[in-house]
Amino acid sequence: MKKRKFGSCCYCGQTLTVETFSREHVLPKSRNGSNKKVNKLPCCKKCNQDKGNKTIDEYITYLTERQPVNYEFKIMMCQRVLSLY
Question: Which CATH architecture has domain 5-84?
Answer without folding.
Answer: Orthogonal Bundle (1.10)
